[in-house]
Amino acid sequence: MDISDLLMRSTLDSIFKVGFGVNLGSLSGCSKEGAAFARAFDNASEQVLYRFFDLFWKAKRLLNVSSEAAMNRSVRTVNDFVYAVIDRKIEQMSSDQQEFGARPGCFDNKYLRDIILNFVIAGRDTTAGALAWFLYVLCRNQHIQERIALEVRAATATGDRDVGAQEFTASLTEHAISKMQYLHAALTETLRLYPAVPIVHSF
To answer: Residue 116: how many CB atoms within 10 A of its CB?
Structure first.
């Protein structure tokens, strides 16, 4: 099982759902558009990384050939999807404002696109990467794994009972999470050992 890929898709879905109210469906594969966006986003991010090693990438971009032609196709797919999200949201907000007698505002779609992509870049890879390394550390240190499990059970008052995902999620209140100090320390130490952003790049 490629846990890193599952975490990447999960965090991408979460960002779009929480931030923009869009069900991307990249984890379940239920949305073709969402899956195409996720692939294009990954491909564009990977190509940006390769630019560090390709001395001729600017010439390729100028001529729109080879890897830079693929990069342009990926960026076009990303833009099409994000602009569609923006258009739907603007239409929804305009309807809501007209219903309550307010005037629709003016939006710069390119600016909104940049904000959305910044959210995705900042929250997706960093969160998924940190969680993947955290799971790696737990798998190598069973005593840490057991201590975290005990702390979570105590904080959520689930004890030794086997609870379902819905009940467990409901028990993860802000108060319960604030009592998970060892878990917080373990996550922080994981970030120290394996930084979420070892290098910074953008497209």
So the answer is: 22
Cβ contact 126:197 at 8 Å: yes
Q: How would DSSP label each residue in 127-191?
A: HHHHHHHHHHHHHH-HHHHHHHHHHHHHHHT-TT----HHHHHHH--HHHHHT-HHHHHHHHHHH
Long-range contacts of 153-158 (CB under 8 A, 24+ apart): 154/179, 155/179, 155/180
Q: Rounded distance, CA 150 to CA 156, Å?
A: 10
- Assigned token pair, 22: 């869009």
* pLDDT value of position 189: 95
pTM, entire model: 0.71
The encoded tokens of residue 50 equal: 């390769």
- pLDDT for the residue 1: 72
Measured distance CA(145)–CA(27) in Å, rounded? 26
Q: Is 39 within 8 Å of 46 (Cβ atoms)?
A: no
For the chain, which residues make up each domain, given as ranges?
Answer: 3-124, 141-203
In the prediction, which pLDDT does 98 show?
A: 61
- Nearest alpha-carbon partner for 73 in 105, 107, 112, 37: 37
Instruction: Supply 36's token pair.
Output: 């195409």
Please, which residues have CB within 8 angstroms of residue 152's CB and are 6 or more apart in sequence? 180, 183
